[in-house]
Design a protein that fits this description.
54% of the residues lie in helices and 17% in strands. By secondary structure, the protein is an alpha/beta fold. A hairpin with a 2-residue loop joins strand 7 and strand 8. The radius of gyration is 19 Å and the shape is globular. The two termini are 36 Å apart.
Length: 242
């Protein structure tokens, strides 16, 4: 992949909401598969309600309609899952990585919707996962997709940037966008309002630990794609408790 050596400002789409009124329903937004509504509770604190019906319907269609491609029919399970991982990375990574200084939670959420559907396809290459009932598959997806996505993101960042990942504290945010951990601003205002500063402090500490405990070892291991696929598959079953 081609890396750009300079930072670029990334234009965040304008917030489609009307002006905030904390006394009433605050805002309803629609992403591709998710509607999220910001309201206030009895104490006047903002809360977010997500309607993920559209996303669940799309995931169910993947579970019900998945057919392995001809390319993987003669492969063992690990090679099938590696094939799926390569497909995932082709879909979700671009040829140019742009460095940004700001990103909105709305943009992260929209990307996550697409990624969870691709993670579903990854798991469907496992005969054991396909043998589960749909409700068990869905429960497993709910429990593992965040960890799966996070580990894959750090693994792919390590592959792209090598030692620069932890020396310069670089992490990919969403497909095609990367940032320096000490410079990135995540706009959480549309989701948590008054609690944004507390979330910012939590995320900074979390990202620092992830870089030291996960990012740096991944760079040093220099994993192949097959090894990464094995690690992601093992993570999925371990986290799900199967």
């Amino acid at each position: 992949m081609k890396n750009e050596n300079h930072e670029q400002n990334h234009e965040i789409p304008p917030d489609p909401c009307s002006p905030i009124n904390l006394e009433k329903q605050l805002c309803i937004r629609q992403t591709k598969d998710v509607t999220y509504e910001v309201q206030t509770d009895e104490k006047g604190e903002p809360i977010v309600k997500l309607d993920i019906t559209g996303l669940l319907n799309n995931i169910t269609s993947v579970l019900d309609g998945f057919i392995p491609s001809e390319d993987v029919k003669n492969m063992n399970t690990l090679r099938r899952m590696n094939h799926a991982l390569i497909d995932y990375r082709q879909i979700h990574h671009t040829n140019v990585i742009k460095f940004v200084q700001s990103i909105s939670m709305r943009e992260i959420l929209m990307t996550g919707n697409d990624q969870i559907k691709s993670i579903t396809k990854f798991l469907m290459h496992s005969a054991l996962f396909r043998s589960l009932r749909n409700e068990d598959r869905m429960q497993m997806l709910k429990s593992i997709w965040v960890q799966w996505k996070r580990l894959e993101r750090y693994a792919s960042t390590a592959q792209i940037f090598g030692k620069r990942m932890y020396e310069d504290q670089i992490v990919t945010l969403v497909p095609g966008l990367a940032a320096y951990l000490n410079k990135i601003h995540v706009d959480c205002a549309s989701f948590i309002y008054k609690k944004a500063e507390g979330m910012k402090f939590f995320m900074e500490n979390f990202n620092t630990r992830m870089m030291e405990e996960v990012g740096k070892p991944l760079v040093e291991l220099e994993l192949t794609s097959v090894e990464t696929a094995f690690m992601l598959a093992q993570l999925s079953w371990q986290v799900a408790g199967w």
